[in-house]
Specification:
single chain; about 300 residues; alpha/beta; TIM Barrel; two-stranded antiparallel sheet
């Protein structure tokens, strides 16, 4: 990938998590993309190195239809249909049960056709309860290696981070966790810089939304207004601004590329670059304290933990 493509790919790989952009504008040039079944386009797929196909959540799309689209787009990852939990409730049993049932149907269809993509098992909040329910009633799902943490789009960053921490205590650090719609606010960025293995990937729609509304937020994550695109070439402008914001997000998530002191400065600060040094690469290789996964037969949830179901 020559020129700017090579640089974007370099920055994307340096981030401590893979950042997927959820956007329909194919002019946003980024190696990691997520699209829903309804919005999937070949022009967008062609711009991606890694591609997640999302069922769209709660649309009632049949597993065969989702998998047909996943095979058509050659998706690397696919998310089964799930039901969004009511965040007003401490525990939305219906959402958890329905999501588990739909995922079971999806896995059956994937096995029938020998689907070779990676399935992200969707979990709804409270995610640790959902996982315990799977351990008891759907062990095939609990023993899976890839999960997506759903139902937290627009939630407070503290709630997002706490939910992932609690889930990690159960599934361990060998499991792959994707933060569905987590965004890239400063609190989330700081948490991932501090604990790189908290999540493996996230997806965000902010870069396209900001660009459409004439806003931009770079590595510092403070928005500035530049004027809403109104000309006939607005998709090109949105694509360029959205791409630039993604580069900024990835840089913020790359300790080897950004000094934390730079990230704490206001966006209009005039810093002397000679006074700032680049910190060392984040340690993503040293494993955290070992946590036994429930599916290995030695640490199953207790009856008390499962009693709420």
């Amino acid at each position: 990938m020559p020129g700017h493509d090579e640089y974007r790919f370099h920055v994307a790989q340096k981030a401590v998590v893979d950042v997927y952009v959820s956007a329909s504008n194919a002019r946003i040039e980024w190696p990691y993309r997520l699209e829903t079944v309804e919005e999937a386009r070949e022009s967008t797929r062609q711009t991606a190195v890694e591609y997640i196909l999302d069922s769209g959540m709660g649309h009632g799309t049949a597993p065969a239809e989702i998998l047909d689209e996943a095979e058509r787009r050659d998706a690397d990852y696919v998310i089964p249909d799930d039901q969004l939990a009511d965040r007003e409730k401490d525990l939305d049993k219906d959402a958890i049960h329905t999501t588990a049932d739909e995922t079971a149907r999806f896995l059956d269809e994937a096995a029938r056709r020998d689907f070779d993509g990676t399935i992200l098992i969707p979990l709804q909040p409270p995610h640790d309860h959902h996982y315990r329910y799977l351990c008891s009633h759907f062990p095939r799902q609990a023993q899976h290696t890839h999960f997506c943490v759903g139902g937290l789009k627009g939630a407070a960053p503290e709630a997002q981070i706490t939910a992932v921490q609690r889930l990690r205590e159960l599934v361990g650090y060998e499991a792959y966790l994707h933060g569905l719609g987590f965004g890239a606010g400063r609190e989330v960025v700081d948490a991932l810089r501090t604990t790189p293995r908290l999540l493996d990937s996230v997806d965000i729609s902010t870069p396209q939304q900001n660009a459409r509304n004439g806003k931009f937020a770079g590595s510092v994550r403070d928005q500035v207004n530049f004027g809403q695109p109104q000309n006939t070439a607005s998709s090109i402008e949105i694509g360029a601004v959205g791409t630039a914001e993604l580069v900024g997000i990835a840089r913020a998530l790359a300790p080897s590329l950004t000094d934390p002191r730079n990230l704490n400065e206001p966006i209009n600060a005039t810093a002397d670059d000679d006074t700032h040094t680049i910190t060392g690469e984040a340690d993503t290789t040293s494993p955290p304290p070992a946590i036994t996964r429930p599916d290995d037969g030695t640490d199953h949830p207790s009856a008390e933990q499962l009693s709420s179901f």
